[in-house]
Design a protein that fits this description.
The chain is mostly helical. About 45% of the residues lie in helices and about 0% in strands. The radius of gyration is 28 Å and the shape is elongated. About 5% of the residues are buried. It binds heme C (HEC).
């Protein structure tokens, strides 16, 4: 009688393939986290910006662009932020929270991460030009214990 030869792989064979399963799962989880943590929040942000953006937001003027350059090159962002957060103490002190569209022309953005000095996003119109000039020239003549350096060269 002829013997029926089965070609079933042995359990050892399948066990040897486990690394493939782990490899596939690794790629799967990588893709999942890429989509969940990168792509989806990005789409949501783009949607929020589109629905809140002021359509008539003018381009920066030449003076404003120069101001951005000076602000970046003198390292003001090392001590100042330009983003009012959505938390009560921020709003009480500086006003309306910063919305995404406000900085949509800023690349690179200058939001800053440290607040050695106050937030400057809503600084416009808070002080007079004379105050600002004197303060930049020599901060300690206005705020005696200020740690802000003088910009008078
Ligand atoms: C070493 C940290 C530091 C750096 C760098 C710095 N500042 Fe300041 N700044 C401060 C501190 C602290 C205060 C709060 C005390 C004061 O008013 O001087 C302040 C206050 C200010 C204020 C007043 C805000 C208000 O209405 O009370 C303005 C405007 C300002 N800084 C602008 C700038 C600009 C522009 C630059 C870059 C040219 C700059 N700062 C760089 C620390 C810094």
């Amino acid at each position: 009688m002829d013997e029926i030869i089965t070609t079933q792989p042995s359990p050892q064979h399948w066990f040897g393939m486990v690394y493939l399963l782990i490899f596939g799962a690794g790629i799967g989880f990588f893709l999942l986290s890429f989509i969940a943590l990168g792509v989806l929040p990005g789409l949501r942000l783009a949607k929020t910006i589109a629905s809140h953006t002021q359509t008539d937001m003018p381009d920066y003027t030449a003076a404003e662009l120069r101001g951005r350059q000076v602000y970046a090159s003198l390292g003001c962002a090392l001590c100042h932020t330009q983003q009012v957060r959505f938390i009560l103490p921020d709003v009480l002190r500086w006003g309306a929270p910063t919305e995404a569209w406000e900085t949509r022309y800023d690349f690179p953005q200058l939001w800053g991460t440290r607040r050695i000095g106050p937030d400057l996003a809503r600084e416009t119109g808070v002080r007079s030009d004379d105050w600002q000039l004197t303060h930049l020239y020599h901060p300690q003549s206005i705020v005696p214990d200020s740690v802000m350096p003088s910009y008078n060269e």
